[in-house]
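In response to the reviewer comment on reproducibility (Comment 2.3), we provide here a single inverse folding case reported in full, input and output, so that an independent group could reproduce the run without further information from us. The structure tokens appear first.
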């Protein structure tokens, strides 16, 4: 055992503490944010409009489908059509979340450009992080659902098919 082993157990070498650097925001960074803001705001507004349309379509399908099924009858019955309508409405509600995050992102950029650069940047980046985390989790959930649906469809095919199609 040498002298350094006794000073630093486990052969760990201390790392000197570096004071935090002052953030540097360059004029090209600000220009990129300025060019990004209208597009982010535009997409968030489109998501809000799409949300409204999906919710309206869901309600229309639910009410209209149930009415038509009761009036004219249907081999499927009114319930599946109503469930499809409710699914549309639920998707509409789900679209509100990324729309809000993008709207807040654009608002943070506006704050950075006009009021307080550092605070606005923090607000914008926090909203952008939340947006991408939400989208990532949603994509993971959708991927899992796709695999589950695929397995169910394959199992249903093999269970419903005649014995001559089975290997």
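Designed residues, in position order:
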């Amino acid at each position: 055992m040498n002298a350094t082993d006794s000073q630093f157990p486990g052969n760990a070498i201390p790392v000197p503490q570096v004071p935090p650097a002052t953030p540097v925001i360059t004029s090209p960074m600000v220009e990129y944010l300025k060019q990004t803001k209208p597009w982010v705001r535009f997409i968030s507004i489109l998501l809000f409009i799409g949300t409204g349309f999906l919710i309206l379509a869901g309600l229309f399908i639910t009410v209209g489908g149930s009415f038509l099924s009761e009036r004219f009858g249907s081999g499927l019955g009114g319930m599946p059509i109503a469930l499809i309508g409710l699914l549309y409405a639920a998707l509409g509600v789900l679209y509100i979340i990324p729309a809000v995050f993008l709207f807040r992102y654009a608002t943070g950029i506006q704050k950075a450009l006009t009021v307080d650069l550092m605070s606005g940047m923090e607000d914008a980046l926090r909203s952008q992080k939340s947006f991408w985390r939400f989208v990532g989790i949603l994509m993971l959930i959708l991927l899992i659902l796709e695999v589950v649906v695929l397995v169910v469809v394959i199992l249903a095919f093999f269970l419903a098919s005649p014995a001559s199609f089975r290997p």
